[in-house]
Amino acid sequence: MSLLLNLAKEAEVEEKIRQMFAGEHINQTENRAVLHVALRAPKDEVITFDGKNVVPDVHQVLEKIKVFSDKVRSGEWVGATGKPLTDVVCIGIGGSFLGPLFVHTALQTEPKSAEAAGNRQLRFLSNVDPVDISLNLDGLQPETTLVVVVSKTFTTAETMLNARTVRSWIISSLGESAVAKHMVAVSTNLKLVGEFGINTDNAFGFWDWVGGRYSVCSAVGVLPLALQYGFENVSQFLQGAWDMDTCFRDAPFDENIPVLLGLITTWNATFLGFSSRAILPYCQALSKLAPHIQQVSMESNGKGVTIEGLPIPYPTGQIDFGEPGTNGQHSFYQLIHQGRVVPCDFIGVIKSQHPVYLKGEMVSNHDELMCNFFAQADALANGKTREELLTEGVSEALVPHKTFTGNRPSSSILLPALTPYTVGQLLSMYEHQVAVQGFILGVNSFDQWGVELGKVLALKVRKQVSKSRTEGGKVTDFNYSTNYLLNRYLQEKEENTETFG
Ligand SMILES: O=P(O)(O)OC[C@H]1O[C@H](O)[C@H](O)[C@@H](O)[C@@H]1O
């Protein structure tokens, strides 16, 4: 640890954290500041960007969300037919989806939040697959549904097609004028929101200095979550995130949770060369943590060059994946124990959101879950030797199969309970862990040029599919394999196309 702490010094992590909180343009390739911490700063905090304190702007939007969500929840805001809007469908993808879904999943079983949600429903439509539309609109009535279109850029192809599709679902049932009452937006691009036909009075802005994957504490997450759980619960979530932000900003490195986790993750992934990391919450309500951190981490640190543009001669980032324990144990843990070395983050909770104790059982249901949490880290660390197996009477033939090498790294994180506050802490902890790792690697953790090429090629394919569907003719403009697949795909006509209106 002391060598890693020296490395943090050498890599000027302290200075980089200072630059981040000072609103310097540390996302150099996009010339942007990285100020998601300002999204959860209390009112009296001063965080400046280009000479201006941004905290009042943040609180202005928060206040607007509070007023709007209170109105919708109380039934003061009604739909086109005069009915209250009890169900919310959020349309967004990537950072405009995964963070809000993670927090929603964590809160939906938390007693206080669940009580505040009552019979309201919150759903997320992300995939451009029409099956996702069908799943998300199933059972909903346009007259009681509020649609929130969430997109930082308001240009993301999947989100915009889904938004147009759901808009036609509303119009076909309630008429054009219903859009004003049934559709709102979250974006940094209010011009495009207006052009789409959403009243910009009902748009909730955020800023260029918030990266998409770091935007859950902006209106991207706060609006849907406040509509579902009430503003008070969401402000506790923000407070939790800010608590971890101040630990990151102020604590000495040997007591700084995100810094320590960042160092350990870098040690495992880059120095020891382990190519993956498992995020394993022993908590069903955290089932969407790994998919969210997957984007935060892999889109941030999966880079091939340094911030100066030089090739990096060592592995960067790691493949993040995960499932809640104990489910993972009955699926992929075999590989983790005896196959490749996969550093693990175990996340446990001391108090269950829903404790159950069955008379006559040795332990409560939550204790049973947590016994596994403690056992797994121990098994990975210590393993089981040949000698132990022989003492237990295991046959020579089976000894190699039953041997565990041990010496497999894991970190265990124990939360007092899963509440809006601790969910905020957990979110911020991972966001900053990823930043520290990027600071040490010397990459720009805040751009994502690697997602562009696929988008450009999809555009070319879209033009071809449209042309072939209308004019016919063979596809020849792609490589042999793609031509062949496209021609086979286009042989079939689309059937049973559903249209709204
Ligand atoms: O919020 P949007 O502008 O619609 O962007 C949604 C997503 O688009 C791209 O895939 C980016 O790589 C992601 O970082 C982003 O979260």
UniProtKB/TrEMBL annotation:
<dbReference type="GO" id="GO:0051156">
    <property type="term" value="P:glucose 6-phosphate metabolic process"/>
</dbReference>
<dbReference type="GO" id="GO:0006096">
    <property type="term" value="P:glycolytic process"/>
</dbReference>
<dbReference type="InterPro" id="IPR001672">
    <property type="entry name" value="G6P_Isomerase"/>
</dbReference>
<keyword id="KW-0963">Cytoplasm</keyword>
<dbReference type="GO" id="GO:0005829">
    <property type="term" value="C:cytosol"/>
</dbReference>
<dbReference type="InterPro" id="IPR018189">
    <property type="entry name" value="Phosphoglucose_isomerase_CS"/>
</dbReference>
<dbReference type="Pfam" id="PF00342">
    <property type="entry name" value="PGI"/>
</dbReference>
<dbReference type="InterPro" id="IPR046348">
    <property type="entry name" value="SIS_dom_sf"/>
</dbReference>
<dbReference type="GO" id="GO:0006094">
    <property type="term" value="P:gluconeogenesis"/>
</dbReference>
<keyword id="KW-0413">Isomerase</keyword>
<keyword id="KW-0312">Gluconeogenesis</keyword>
<keyword id="KW-0324">Glycolysis</keyword>
<dbReference type="GO" id="GO:0048029">
    <property type="term" value="F:monosaccharide binding"/>
</dbReference>
<dbReference type="InterPro" id="IPR023096">
    <property type="entry name" value="G6P_Isomerase_C"/>
</dbReference>
<comment type="subunit">
    <text>Homodimer.</text>
</comment>
<dbReference type="InterPro" id="IPR035482">
    <property type="entry name" value="SIS_PGI_2"/>
</dbReference>
<protein>
    <recommendedName>
        <fullName>Glucose-6-phosphate isomerase</fullName>
        <ecNumber>5.3.1.9</ecNumber>
    </recommendedName>
</protein>
<dbReference type="GO" id="GO:0097367">
    <property type="term" value="F:carbohydrate derivative binding"/>
</dbReference>
<dbReference type="GO" id="GO:0004347">
    <property type="term" value="F:glucose-6-phosphate isomerase activity"/>
</dbReference>
<dbReference type="InterPro" id="IPR035476">
    <property type="entry name" value="SIS_PGI_1"/>
</dbReference>
<comment type="pathway">
    <text>Carbohydrate degradation; glycolysis; D-glyceraldehyde 3-phosphate and glycerone phosphate from D-glucose: step 2/4.</text>
</comment>
<comment type="similarity">
    <text>Belongs to the GPI family.</text>
</comment>
